[in-house]
Amino acid sequence: MFLNNGWYVLGFSNEVGPELLARTVLNQDIVAFRDANGRVRALEDRCCHRAVPLSLGKVRPEGLECGYHGMVFNGDGRCVFILGQSDISATACVRAYPLVERAEFLWIWMGDPALADEAQIPVIPFDSASWRVGRMKVTVQCDYLLLLENLMDLTHLPYVHSATIGSGQADSHGAAEMTVERTQTGTHLRRVMRNIAPPETFAALYGANGLIDRWQDLQFISPSIVLQCSGFCNAGELDETNAPNSGQIYYIVHGITPETDTSCHYIASMADKMPPSDDQSAALQKVFQEDIQVLEAQQRSIARTGKNRLVSIRSDRARIELNRFVERALAEEAKASQTDLVLEALV
Amino acid sequence: MFLNNGWYVLGFSNEVGPELLARTVLNQDIVAFRDANGRVRALEDRCCHRAVPLSLGKVRPEGLECGYHGMVFNGDGRCVFILGQSDISATACVRAYPLVERAEFLWIWMGDPALADEAQIPVIPFDSASWRVGRMKVTVQCDYLLLLENLMDLTHLPYVHSATIGSGQADSHGAAEMTVERTQTGTHLRRVMRNIAPPETFAALYGANGLIDRWQDLQFISPSIVLQCSGFCNAGELDETNAPNSGQIYYIVHGITPETDTSCHYIASMADKMPPSDDQSAALQKVFQEDIQVLEAQQRSIARTGKNRLVSIRSDRARIELNRFVERALAEEAKASQTDLVLEALV
Amino acid sequence: MFLNNGWYVLGFSNEVGPELLARTVLNQDIVAFRDANGRVRALEDRCCHRAVPLSLGKVRPEGLECGYHGMVFNGDGRCVFILGQSDISATACVRAYPLVERAEFLWIWMGDPALADEAQIPVIPFDSASWRVGRMKVTVQCDYLLLLENLMDLTHLPYVHSATIGSGQADSHGAAEMTVERTQTGTHLRRVMRNIAPPETFAALYGANGLIDRWQDLQFISPSIVLQCSGFCNAGELDETNAPNSGQIYYIVHGITPETDTSCHYIASMADKMPPSDDQSAALQKVFQEDIQVLEAQQRSIARTGKNRLVSIRSDRARIELNRFVERALAEEAKASQTDLVLEALV
Q1: How far is CA A94 from the centre of its chain?
Q2: Lowest mean pLDDT: which of B105-119, B150-164, C240-254?
Q3: What pLDDT score was predicted for residue B242?
Q4: CATH superfamily of B132-328
């Protein structure tokens, strides 16, 4: 069960064109290509003739050419060429998906195209002109919800990330101030730890040495983005605006797009104010690999034993709020789609 | 659903003896061995004692010895030796399959042995004495029907084989003359393209340079052979007997034997009139690999999405005729086997 | 269907601690660790918080710490630490399994802990102080019963082990004297072959050359041990006490622990009276690999075709007795567990 009516991150803008991008999203095979006008289009990756993936084909001025018998489909999914045949049936078409290129991400709408509202695409509060931006993309063998939950329960830092962003921090995380609130579009988690020693990653990446105040601000935005604004400053200098005049602020956009029921694409962008260097992406990769090892083991365990006999603890508040939001949204989408069916029956 | 009453290519003659040949055909594990008289015999590859594959065993003068406890089975599948035991029950036997060695192929009959008629084995119109013969054998991860259909719709050449046998040929294939007819044993497809530039493979293999007439004559012979006779000659010199006095003629026997529901053995022999060289087999391999890449992607796509919402186009005529033939044959076989059951019940 | 109320070999004593041991037994994921008192404890390998395997965690003085959010479980499976939370619910616990360390093996009880009786652990008739002991541990992709059956039908030696312990022995094995009896705890098989040439392994390992008497004494002890006492002596010098004053005696403990329905751990120890050398373990490995090749092929065959249409032969007596024992024990366990349910309902 996935939310269909929502914008998911399909990938980075620069993954398309001249190359095709083939990616499975919500169990559906998608192919994206850049059309003759430079616009990225997304089609069902399955020719309507013999079901061969269109991603084996080539981009032509008129659209995407199937690599088996040469049928060409335009960006709306209509077949516009069949070899040796001038008349083309209107049934010769493949599904087209709304796709928007914005903030160096490709945003795809998996539900009813009539509902696709570009205003719902999350606003990314940085750009590569004024920030140092690092990127990461990996497919993780776990249910996308496990990854969302991971981000909304940060007491895992001193254990999963004991050598990087959580080193020597168990007591600090145990005593963190935590605020959780439901928002219009998801869940908002804010954590503050005051007067703590910096973890190794902060020392390595930002030269932190004395005691710091550290904050973590995470917004889960439905269906599947976590927008993180975190940072630290000298102990005692943190105010509530997240705009410290010492230390560092950094953003991470976590785009977590379901691939199948038990796998997801983790497509992320990190921005900070440091001069360009390879260290940032490397640090991001290392931290994410620590998560992935745990998450894939968790997925295998759940596949064998289910989710029964599990208990929640106090630090789970944001995770539980996230789960409730998703369940409500799924129920609302199911109800709306049933209403549509009734209306269609009445017509 | 496979046709059982028919001759399938199990492999090449020289694959058996002194070595065993273990191969799965129509979801059944088969072991073939050469008996003391030099005759190739085919048995169920499963000892009736503890279900161990007989192909782990050894050929003995009396038959095939199981590698676990030493039981020996003769070519009829009867057990003729049990260690330390002189009396042998008639129930100690494994299934034997009719097998005929002909034209350097092994032909196996998967249905009722009483119906196995050697006269139904397709006649191969060449031999390695007077032709240059190249061979190829590969297991393809697709339903055998996808491979048969591939051969019966040759408009795929300019796309799948754009670097080999179909290079620069889209317009020629779009304008090809096509004849399709139903035959007693399958489907006959004939295509002719006149006054065209030769594809790269013809130039490389046969030195073709000026404009040519090219013909493709393919006979699908049920249950699973395609006998191809193709060639080319100087433009304007083609007559309808396929016996041009210029250019080249070549044959391909495509033996396409189902392994499982989603895989098949592609066992093929190509004959032409050129002097011996490695180029022929290499060219065959390259072309087939181009097909295999598409077919395996098609199979994965169909496994995920089924065959619904597919449309046919004009060039599909032979493919559709092939599908109809197979469906009719399956229905007839099912009906005949039901009649058998009724007759048995009456007895 | 497995017997739960019984002691299985989980592994060797020296596999645990400082390292954890994670192993799946009877389809259940187990983690073993050595607690602060040096005692080996076995827990369900799944944190009750988010189902992550505890084997990703660390051993702490208080117990085993989960690698995700740091919850700590003691050897009884009770949670004794949650980060930032002082009160801990009694429901925060994981299953603990009775575990006994004895004779360099770890013995685990998979059923009702109230029934775990250490007196039922098989007595191992050797120790590494007075014997040369070699060890082997491998996971085999077959139902554990296939491996037990293999050990209880030794006419496979001249075929499966034709290059090692069964070389040149078909006639000898065909004429072996065999005694099979049901015991309180399993099945007892005794075989004697008199006046035979020694197999290659006896020549290589023990310098056997002239004619020998060879005996094989195997006790299947439910649920899943075979205790083997075998050996040989000069022809004519064997008495029935298995204590020949010439030749060699050796023991093998075959610990065969189901991992899943179609795989098992083969954990074995071999003891003889020779001076230390690597030859012993190497010989054991080689012989077991010969079995494994056959058993895994047998498993794949049974997975495809089931166990129907199989026949038994005369040498199967001990195997059949073993199967009967296991079936009876399974039926008794099922009945006892139903009685428990009825008694609970009455209370």
Answers
A1: 26
A2: C240-254
A3: 64
A4: Naphthalene 1,2-dioxygenase Alpha Subunit; Chain A, domain 1 (3.90.380.10)
DSSP assignment of A192-204: EEEEEPPPHHHHH
Neighbour subunits, C (≥3 Cβ pairs < 8 A): A, B
CA atoms lying within 13 Å on the CB side of residue A310: 18
**How many Cβ pairs within 8 Å bridge chains A and C?**
77
How far apart are the CA of C263 and the nearest CA of chain A, in angstroms?
Answer: 16
In angstroms, what CA-CA distances link A281 with A252, A284, A288?
12, 5, 10
**Is the pLDDT confidence value at C9 over 90?**
yes
pLDDT at position A243 is 63
The edge-to-edge listing of strands for the beta sheet with B72-73 is: B58-60, B63-65, B72-73, B79-81
What global pTM score does this model have?
A: 0.94
* Identity at B27, one-letter amino acid code: N
Question: Chain A closest CA to C27's CA: distance in Å?
Answer: 9
Domain at A7-120, CATH class:
mainly beta
Contacts of A49 in chain B (CB under 8 A): 310-313
Find out whether B178 and B167 touch, Cβ atoms under 8 Å.
Answer: no
Of A317 and C344, the structure prediction assigns the larger pLDDT to A317
- Using the Cα atoms of residue A319, residue A324, residue A326 and residue A327 in order, give the sign of their dihedral: positive
- Is C176 an 8 Å CB contact of chain B? yes
Predicted local distance difference test score (pLDDT) of residue A327: 97
Chain C neighbors of A310, CB-CB under 8 A:
48-51
Yes or no, beta carbons of C50 and A305 under 8 Å apart? no
Contact in structure between C222 and C325 (CB atoms under 8 Å): yes
At a CB cut-off of 8 Å and minimum separation 6, what does C142 contact?
C262, C263, C264, C295, C296, C298, C299
Beta-bridge mates of residue A78: A93
Three-state secondary-structure class, residue B56: helix
Residue A105 sits at the vertex; the CA angle it makes with A100 and A109, to the nearest 5 degrees, is 40
Q: Is C297 close to B53, i.e. CB distance below 8 A?
A: yes
Q: Which residue has the tokens 């998608």?
A: A30
Cβ-based contacts of C175 with chain B (< 8 Å): 84
Report CB contact under 8 Å: A301, C29: yes
Touching subunits of A (3+ CB pairs, under 8 Å) are B, C
Domain regions of chain C by residue span: 7-120, 132-328
Per-residue model confidence as pLDDT tens digits over B133-190: 999 999 999 999 999 999 999 999 999 999 999 988 899 999 999 999 999 999 999 9
The pLDDT tens digits of the residues spanning B297-337 come to: 999 999 999 999 999 999 999 999 999 999 999 999 999 98
Across the interface, of A155, A173, A294, the residue whose CB is closest to C52 is A294
pLDDT for the residue C292: 98
Q: Cβ of B50 under 8 Å from any chain C Cβ?
A: yes
Question: In what helix (H) or strand (E) does residue C225 lie, and over which residues does it extend?
Answer: strand C225-234
In tens, the pLDDT along A80-121 reads: 999 999 999 999 999 999 999 999 999 999 999 999 999 999
- Nearest-by-Cβ selection for A313 from C29, C45, C82: C82
Alpha-carbon distance of A346 to A202, in angstroms, equals: 61
* pLDDT score, position B243: 63
- Containing H/E element for B325? helix B317-346
Q: Chain C residue with minimal CA distance to A298?
A: C52
Contact B311 A69 (CB under 8 A): no
Residues 6+ apart with CB under 8 A from C318: C152, C153, C178, C180, C187, C189, C218
Residue A239 banded pLDDT, cuts 50, 70, 90 = confident
Contact of A108 with chain B, judged by CB distance below 8 Å, is answered with no
Sheet holding A186-196, edge to edge: A132-140, A263-272, A248-260, A225-234, A212-221, A186-196, A177-182
Confidence (pLDDT) at A169 = 80
